[in-house]
Amino acid sequence: MRKDAALIDELEALEGEALRAIEAARDEGDLEGVRVTFLGRKEGRISLLLRRLGELPNELRPEAGQEANRVKGVVQGALEQRRGELEGPSREAAPVEDLSLPGRRNWIGGRHPITRVVDEICAIFRTLGFTRVRGPEAETEWYNFVALNTPLDHPAADEQDTLYLKGGHLLRSHTSPVQIRIMETHEPPIRIVVPGMVYRRDTYDATHAPAFAQIEGLAVDEGITFVDFKATLAEFSRRFWGPGTQVRFRPSFFPFTEPSAEVDVKRIHTFPDGTTRESDWLEIMGAGMVDPAVLENAGYDPERFTGFAFGMGPGRIAMLKYGIPDIRHFYDGDVRFHRQFAGP
Ligand code: DAH
Questions:
Q1: Beta partners for 330?
Q2: Can you list the domains of the chain with their CATH numbers?
Q3: Whether the predicted model's global pTM rises above the 0.85 cut
């Protein structure tokens, strides 16, 4: 047998042996052993063979040399690949992405439950001809109290103690001052709803927050009567709380209305199986006929114009509507709470 042929056979046999050993390797350590056995610089079996190339006659060396390099390359490549496999699933082995799956959408939030209730209430009043307007949160004592027929030493002013700012301003304790601001700048007929934040010196507990939302309402024109007042608020209540809702006007007192009332509703809950249950009477707003002194303070002639006003807390209404037991859930910013109201 020619010397080169014998060498090439030996090389091929070694190649097969090396590839089987690589295949059988179970970890990095095994692989390193295989590498040293076959490719180790000094004692590696392929290295030793390569060294024997020198024994060949000159004309046979190139072919044997090429073959030796090929085997060396194949064994190195196989070592690399096996190392990759042992490190983790290779790209080919990874599960193919299912491109037909719908994308995972980022949660971009939803409207705050109080905002939902505000929007819903304003939308109902819009169909009754009321425009949504706003007013400043930093007010003066005149707009917040005095113009609303509430002298500063009146007990009603005490109940609405608030934070005072520099320059004679205070944080409004209710949205009622916007009644005056709108009447000052607009001629009747007036029909407005005024959502906004108000502030009071109240302890933060399950039913109170020092900053909370209100919605004010005001209608002023020639010839507005108590019938318009009752009918409008009863209609609103039934639309908001659902058909079958009973509405009750309870005599009350506010300095800026005369007569004044608290409006209560009794809801009918309908369960999924069709059975129904009546709620207790729930107080949902304060209201009344605008006091002539207020019309006068706003520059209207109380002999000519009359009107009605109302004020409600959409936070309280949201609690009743959604069965929320603690007002602080609205303000704590816990995403688990807010996710329940996700959606447009
Ligand atoms: N401003 C009152 C409050 O914050 C609520 C209110 C009651 C507003 C009666 C009104 C009204 O316009 O007529 O307690």
A1: none
A2: 3-87 (no CATH), 113-341 (3.30.930.10)
A3: no
